[in-house]
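ok so I'm stuck.
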Amino acid sequence: MADDNPFFRAVRDFCQRDVVTCAAGDRLVDAVGIMRSRNISSIVVVRDDMPHGIFTDRDLRNKVVAQARDPAALTVADVMHTPLSTIAERDVLYEALYRMSKQKIHRLVVVDDTGRLTGIITDTDILRLQAHSPHQLVLDIEKAGSIDDLRHLHHRIQQLVVHMSGTGIAIRDLVKLIANLNDQVLIRLIGLLRAEKYPDLTDRFAFVVMGSEGRSEQTLSTDQDNAIVYADDLSADELARLEAFSVELIDTLIAIGVPPCPGGIMAKNAAWRHSLSEWKQTLNRWLTTPTPEHVMTGSMFMDLRTLYGPDELVQALREQAFRTMSQDQGFLMRMAQNMTRFLPPLSWLGRIKVEKSGPHRGKLDIKKAGIFAITDGIKALAIQARALDGSTHDRIEALVAAKVMKEADAADLRAAFDFMVRLRLRGHVEALHAGTEPSNYISLEQLNAMEKGELKLAFEGVARFQGFIKHHFSLQLLRN
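replied:
not stuck anymore, here's the structure
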C-alpha cells in the first residue's frame, strides 16, 4: 500500500518541526552564534511571523568569508537567500525531492495552507528513508555520462512505475512521478549533447513540451509532443546549429526509448521550430480561424510548458493567447464543442459499450471514452479563467477557488478522472508484462463487478460535465 512507499506520503510526516528562526535585521554574528550553539547549518528568516528567507553556512562561506567581508558589520539581510523555496506540508515527499533536485538546493521550508512556517526538510532527511528509491534514480540521471546510461535509466523508470502501479499510491502522484523522471532524462540529454557536440549553441531558445507531457500527466506509452521557440534575432549560423541540435536531440530521444509522435509534433520538424514572432503569427491563425484541425492543434499547444531555456518566451505566447481569446470566444467555444462530441460509451439502458469486432473486440478506448473530455473541458475553463498552470488536478483546484466550479462537482470529476487514468496505466503495465505494445484500450472482461460499476459512474460523471460545458459556453448558439 501507499504506506510502504514513503516517497508518496505527506511531507508533514517527515519534516523537522523544531525550526530555528531569526529576523532579517538581526546581526549576522548573532545568527551564526545561534547556528553554532545549536549545531545546525541553516536558520530561517521570518518577517511578520511569515517565512521570508534563509541563511545557510554556505552563504557564510560564499558571501562573507570568500569576499573578505567583515561579519560584524553585516546583518542577516545582507547575506540571506530570498525569495524562499517552500513546500506545503500536505505535498508528497517525492515532490520535495524533485524541487530540491531541480533547484539544486539541499532544504525546503515547509508551510501550511496559510503560508505559515511549520517545519523544514532536507535532502539528508530523505536519503535516510531508502537507499534504492526514486531519489536514487534522480541522482543517477543527474550523473549519467552517456546516451547508453540514459537508455538504461529510461528502462529503470518503466520498471519503477510497473512496481509502484500495484500499490496504493494515488494516481495523481504516480503520473507526476513519471513526468518528473522523464523531464530529468530529457534535461540531462540536452546537457550531454550541448557539452559534447554543441558547446557553441545559443542560449536564446526554449524547448517546450505540450499535451499530456505539458500537463505532467504522462503514462508509460505517452509519445512525444514538443517544440522549440527561439529569439527573433538569431543569426543564420545560430539557426543552423539550433536545427542540427534539434534533429539530433529528438533522434536520440527516440533511440533512448521515448516513442516519436505519429503526427510529427516534434522539435526536429521545421513546422514545430519557430521564432517567437513566427509562433505568435501561427498561434493567432489557429485562434482566429477555429477549423477542426486548428482547434485540435491549438488545444494541444495551450498545454505548453518550458522544459529547458527561458520561460519568458512561453509566457509571451500564453499571454497573447489569453488576450486573443478574451476578445473572441470563437476558438474556446469550438474547443468546448469538440470535447462534447466524445460521448461516454453508455447505451440508453446505461450499459457500457465496447468494440463489437476487429482487433479491439470487447475493449474500449479509455482516453476517447472519458479522459479526453475531462482534460480538454477543464482546459477550456482554465483558459477562460487564466488558470492554465499545472496539471488537470491543479486546474480543477484553481477553478474551484475562482468559483467556476463547485467543490462537490470538482470532487466527483477528480474521482472519475483518476479512476480512468489508473485503468489506462494498469492496461499499459499489463501490456508490458504480456510483451505487447501499450495502448489506450482496456478490456471490460478484466474488470471486476465493483470496477465496472465505478467505471459506469465515471462515464456518467463525464456526461454531466459535458452538459455543464455546453451550458457554460452557450454551445447552443454555435452552428455545426
